[in-house]
Input
Amino acid sequence: MSGEAQTTAHHHPTPRQYVQIAVLLGALTGIEVALYYTEPTLGKLVTPALLLLAAIKFGLVVGYYMHLKYEKRLLTGFFGAGFLLAGMIYAVVLVTFLIVPRFG
Amino acid sequence: MTTTASRSTIFRRPKTTTGFWSWITTVDHKKIGIMYGYTAFFFLLVGGLEALLLRIQLAGPEGQFLSQAEYNAMFTMHGTTMVFLVIMPMSAAFMNFLLPLMIGARDVAFPRLNALSYWVFLFGGIFLYSTFLFGTTGAPAGGFLADEVSRLGSAPNAGWFGYAPNTESQYSVGTVLDYWSIGLQIIGLASLLSSVNLITTIFNLRAKGMRLLRMPVFAWMSLVVNFLLAFSLPIIAVALWMITFDRQFGSQFFQAANGGDPILWQHLFWLFGHPEVYILVLPAMGIVSEVLPVFSRKPLFGYAAVVFAGAAIGFLGFGVWAHHMFSSGIGTVAQAAFGLSTMTIAIPTGIKIFNWLGTMWMGRLRFTTPMLFAIGFVAMFTIGGLSGVTHSVVPADWQQTDTYYVVAHFHYVLFGGAIFGIFAGLYYWFPKLTGRMYSEKLGKLHFWLMFIGFNLTFAPMHWLGLQGMVRRTWQYAADTNLGPWNMVVTIGAFVIATSILVFMWNWVVSRRRGVQAGIDPWDARTLEWTIPSPPPQYNFAEIPTVTSLDDFWHRKYTEDDEERPVRREGADALVAELEHTGRHPDRPIHLPAPSYFPIAVGLSLPLVGYGIVYHGEVWGLALLVVGLLATVTSFIGWAQEPSEPEPFGEEG
Amino acid sequence: MADLAHELGHHDEHEGLGVDNRKLAMWVFLASEFMFFGAFISTYLLFKGREGLTPPIPRDLYDIPFTSVSSFVLLMSSLTMVLAHNALSRKDQPATRSWLLATAMLGMVFIGGQVFEFSTFVQEGMTMRTNAAASGFYLLTGFHGTHVVIGIIMLLSLYGISRRQDGLSEAKGLNLELVGLYWHFVDIIWIVIFTVVYLIP
Output
């Protein structure tokens, strides 16, 4: 495969780099599944670890495959705004259900 | 040029720019805006009629004019219609017609998508209203409603907010709530598509020099509104899918017996519903921000503050939704948090109000009809905002909830606010739209009748509510002594109706016989007043270059030492020249070509809707399949149609 | 199609964000989709651990090895998607078509896996009517799957256009990038779903 391919003025990862990212994504998924099976031993640590792994995968696909890392910052702004807004709002909804006082 | 597309070659791109077919296939933002406007106004009349029926029923105690079923249908459809089929599309009408003109563009970013939004809205609204023809409702086993429900009562009847589990099929038998949930789904899609379109337009299609902070306030409010739409509509889409699946396919989202939760509906609905009310009022606030400066002969006081306050309202609007749930048992922590967040929204709102007052202060005021409505907005919206602040005090809200006090609040902000703002805009831009002036006498008559009627109708609701008159209830008992003020309310409603007739008469007569208006009858500030009235299809013969906020004003006026405006010597000549060159572009202009596909997709969605409602029948399933196929094929045809603009006038 | 604003008015410059119209629109649309999927994901989280759910609940029936393979397939389809984009940027039309087809086929394998998973669950006694957690599971993954199917249709359309028009032009190339953005988005939603719905205890 050839080196830098540029449709626009931006830098693009090479096909080789794309494949490396894919391998990484696969490995991370493998670790996630392994963690799932070790849950009885690791207990409470599993959830944050899984979330972290998912976040890394998310970031890799968004940053490199969706090219957001190389795009204008504003696009990250819009995309991030949607993500953060959703995260905050639904977190509040779930918390509201958790903290409702239960009577009798 | 009036070539009609021949019927035997439906795949050939239509070309006509005049006549009936030109409206069917148009992608011109101005025509689309006009269609939105007339359709929304039609629904205003329908929603208003529904209100009058309610008010006749409630004019005296123990009314028998409407049955219980009919009453429930009327208040539900009144609310649903006014929110989704009147105010939102009216705002869309203004945004569509004006935004490209205000930012110096020839059209929106995606003209065919724009047309699609209109057709989806129109046919979605028709689908919803077809409930009166086809919908069925009735009592669940052992219920108290009559077995036979009249056509008038055969409409969605669970309120515009459709709380679960009342909307579940075991409590709401029949199909009316399917018309509601699916109809709203379709209508919501129209706005979602439009929001992406207009956000792109505002960001990317501005004329040279039209930096974001040089845009008219209406353009800024439109930007905020479209972000609100984009981020809030998906939430109600989810809620509507959930209730649709609960009703049609037996899912358990809101069925408490099997792990579901009716409170989830409330959260999802109000997560949309609260940003929705800012979607309803911010465009009107934008209109007011355009009208007040022109008729005060002063720039808007604190432009940047007004813009940022609008953005703040939009953002904070996502943080207050559970104030609609204070009496739903969400617990004291949530109540306190949302009470506080609700109070903070008053701050940016107050900033805007003070800035509007500051604009008028020491201005040379001209009390034209649009100015009267704009001032009316400021006053009435403030009253509504104040009652809203009282809602934010949780224990007080517990008294107010489900009483007419709440009805008073939201009508002050939505009618005294949004509707007044819309009328201000309709009068203000009438000369631009039609090239003629409306009758100022009839306009003022409309205003005063409407102002008096509106306050007669809604002011008493404050104390009726505090005296305990309950919402959404078809009758009140004689010994509640609520009768006399209710009669006043009903009379007020009919005064409002009369004022609307005056408006309609003014509109129709002035379109035909109004005095010719030039391009700038108001001596205004923004770009839409630099082109002929009505605007030519291409908007600007030459896209202007802008050097400041209110660029047009500054080309006409300079300032003396005391910052008073002084008309430049060449101002009249400038306006005359703009009028002339506006009609005679010196080179061919490329415009997007018309298309059949938007209306084709628009027509196929209700087919899918009927298919979902009646999927239990064979013909229903067939409709569903046909509808889906029609949608997909229309999209494929659309995708293959070239989107390059074609030369205007075909001269090449 | 080139930027509408450039087409109109010949040499008029204009203000903009410096991002193509359709690309900007796609990013805004995808941002809004977070609100859509977020609602379904949080609904599932709300219901999954509730007391009194009529069994079986989704958690009882998950086949993690199977779903892991599905997830891997979808991740790899993002790779093939980005390779299609890369091939087009090098004007290698046949390779572009191959990668497009590969992406669509991996998507179809994913959907096949979903269909198999759903029918297994139904056989094991869990439909969307069984309990609220099941309803949440089916609608979340069902709407995700619907998005994948729409993506597959778009991919195959691009493939078809490329065959009929002997390759994708510069203008159509942007369409491929847009479909790619959509496809990757659907993939990242699955990344979240797989972790939050299937794996997290």
Observations:
- The longest strand of chain C covers residues 14-15.
